[in-house]
Write a structure and sequence with these properties.
Blueprint: E1 4-7, H1 9-16, E2 21-23, E3 27-29, E4 36-41, E5 47-53, E6 59-65, H2 74-86, E7 97-102, E8 111-116, E9 119-124, H3 127-131, H4 133-144, E10 148-153, E11 166-172, E12 178-182, E13 185-189, H5 204-213, E14 217-221, H6 227-233, E15 238-243, H7 246-258, E16 264-268, H8 271-280, E17 285-290, H9 302-319, E18 320-330, H10 337-351, E19 355-361, E20 380-386
Parallel strand pairs: 1-4, 9-10, 14-15, 14-17, 15-16, 17-18
Antiparallel strand pairs: 1-3, 2-6, 4-5, 5-6, 7-8, 8-9, 10-11, 12-13, 18-20, 19-20
Helix pairs in contact: 2-4, 5-6, 8-9, 9-10
Amino acid sequence: MPEAAVVTAKGTRRWEQGHPWIYRSDVTTRPSSAAGAVRVLDRSGKPLGWALWSPHSEISLRLLDRGPDVTIDEEWWRSTIAKALRRRESLHPVASAFRLVHGEADGCPSLICDRYDRWLVVQLLSAGAEAFRDSIVSALIALLRPEGILARNDVPIRDKERLPRLTECLHGSVPREIEVHEHGVRYLAAPWDGQKTGAFLDQRENRALVGRVAAGRALDCFSYHGSFALHLARQASSVVALDASAAALARASQNMHCNGMTNIEFKVADAFDFLRSEETSDSRYDTIVLDPPAFAKTKSALSGALRGYKEINLRAMRLLKPGGLLFSASCSFHLSKALFLEMLEDAARDSGRRIALRDFRGQPLDHPEVLTIPETGYLKGALIEALD
């Protein structure tokens, strides 16, 4: 019988209450084996299941399976990933890029897998998952027959696992650019060097929502590669796509031409400065999108982040024409849904206008948020209307 990890009553409760992580401080007997899968027992010796084992991480154990007699091998990964794929079947008619495996939320802790047409991009975010790299890649090939699999293992979280940061092709070949489509819009994803795994897939359904309700003169702040702007441009008469990066907007311009559009103007500018200037000059817009990067990357940064979120939302509310719509989003995990709504209420109060909440959005089907695993959820969005 392989060596087992023994955990405290507190660690046992975490699994019983639906959270898959057990921290270093709650492991009383640490396996001497290398990273991989280990059996987990409670203090009385009762089997609790199997977990990914990361010897150097603060998160020592990540629940894989509660069955005491299972074997964690390629077949286990294939079966578990297949279940995640079945949950995404409804996305195939509307998009060629979406998340196939969302880590802990899909029972594959610390594994991310995104699809971009005929290619896959994976992230192995723990030493335990890294130990099963070959099994995971083989399972993906068997299930999906991709033309290539790219590992975007260039993320800081791997430092905590004592793993190298690198980007490498694990199977076949993966192009630098991949044209994908979502809800009738095409854009170029950049799997080798783009944000996340090549594009912001988690905003796909929100972009489609904005595209349906857009009208008149539109503004897309923090536009990056123009994904929101492209959807806005299908309904709005004109769109200003704003970003601090000229390189990002150059890609956005490419995306505009991919769709045969001509009504998007690209501006390289700081969003805070631009919004202040527009307010001073009494500019008005019918539709505005605020999709900033995470302002609160740590809990200690939350206070300053709230000031930043409030400022851009307050100024955007003031720039709306009567009846105008603002879609505001936050991808900061540390900014809760309650705090996000409270921030919007504060901004609405200070705007001096009647602001109505039309819709509140969470994460899409392919980025499931498990209620007992807060770390699986981070994205919040609100569609609001200026009533006067």
